[in-house]
Amino acid sequence: MSSSPDLSRVLPRVLIVSRRTVRKNKFVDFVGEYHLDLIVGYGAVPVIVPRVAGVHALLDSFEPIHGVLLCEGEDIDPSLYDSSAADGALSLEQLEAVRRLHPSDAAIDHEKDSIELRLARRCLERNIPYLGICRGSQVLNVACGGSLYQDVEHELAVGPAGAAVQHINYGDYDGHRHPVRVLPGTPLHEWFAGDLLAGGDDSAQQQLMVNSYHHQGVRRLAQRFAPMAFAPDGLVEAFYDPDTYSPGEGRFIMGLQFHPERMRKPGGSGDEFDYPGCARAYQEFVRAVVAYQEKTAAGPHLPRGAPVPALPKLSKEMERRRKVISRSFSLAKDMYLSGGRTNPAEQRDLEAGAEFLESNTASLSVQQEKRLKQMGATVRNASGYLNSLKVSGVREAAARALMAEMTVNQLSDLAAFYGTMGKICSEVLDTKLQALHVNVNLHE
């Protein structure tokens, strides 16, 4: 049986940030199950990023990231976008009324804001597929420099956009619907093409009835985005980046203010959507996620038949260091297998490997750095540890008795330790040596 997983079979990973609530006087993190069902159903693995203090600084530990789905949550901190400069900004009295009317949504969660904005910007920088639902669409717009209405009822009901729209109905969360006008030539129009209804006197004004549950929304759409749908009051209900939309090539950046995952027919099993197009957002998103994983796993494209570039040659000093470190790890491995003692010279050689492990932690996550330092300490103390478990006579019996008391996890760690150490150290060493010599002539 293989000792390591077949990475070619690892499913793509979609990060989803949880929302915090209180249950039985304790904090509980959750993600709506409809989102998870759809991600799993189309062939990706949802990885839940917990909304806990400090996670925003540990996002590297969630790599590889093949896609990000952001959905429910509280209002985004208005200091993160230009809320005061806009005409019609809410007064203090109006803001207080909003907080009373929407107590669970109007609260600000700074940690969630930080986590999600960092993830959104990472997606934008690296073209990682991103789907934002409701709050997630607002996060995407803010991450690109757009702004939000702090309350659409106050700010749009009296504006020039037209008819007022009920965007939230606390008494009928799943059943509430309102119309949106879908723009032709957009992905949304393609997904729902067979179910769009003519609206008003203009047959081009094609409408869709959608579920929504929000009191904020896009005020100024960021420049890179194009709208896909509007509510009758003028609110942007869907948008995307047309320059990065090609799911088959791993490109997908989109925000939907409405909830396609909740548009289910009443009285049924819960699996039947209002329209066949409701699930297309998730289907196309996961298609992009799969393509992105394949594209990034393949690495840089080389022309057919082209030779693979050789690694740069090392300088004499770097080659000497490599040999010293290799000898250190070789000694540690031999000691582990034989249970032998070391002489003073060998002990000094072990020190080289220990120092390398404990000092070469640049660009590593906190967990990786901690693990390397633990390995270094074990290498440094290898002779004393192994001598205490010398494989002979009574000592062997004592060792077996000692290990019989260890947990399965401890025994697994012990058995896998040197294999893991060698793998990690090899990867770190290769990365650092290549970085140091990136400008060396390949044919030197």
From TrEMBL:
List the protein's name: Uncharacterized protein
Gene3D superfamilies to which the protein is assigned, alphabetical: 3.40.50.880
Task: Please give one Pfam family short name.
Answer: Peptidase_C26
InterPro entries cross-referenced by the UniProt entry: Class_I_gatase-like, Peptidase_C26, PuuD-like
GO-annotated cellular components: cytosol
Any one GO MF term held by the record is: hydrolase activity, acting on carbon-nitrogen (but not peptide) bonds, in linear amides
SUPFAM superfamilies listed in its UniProt record: Class I glutamine amidotransferase-like
* Origin species: Miscanthus lutarioriparius
**Higher taxonomy:** Eukaryota, Viridiplantae, Streptophyta, Embryophyta, Tracheophyta
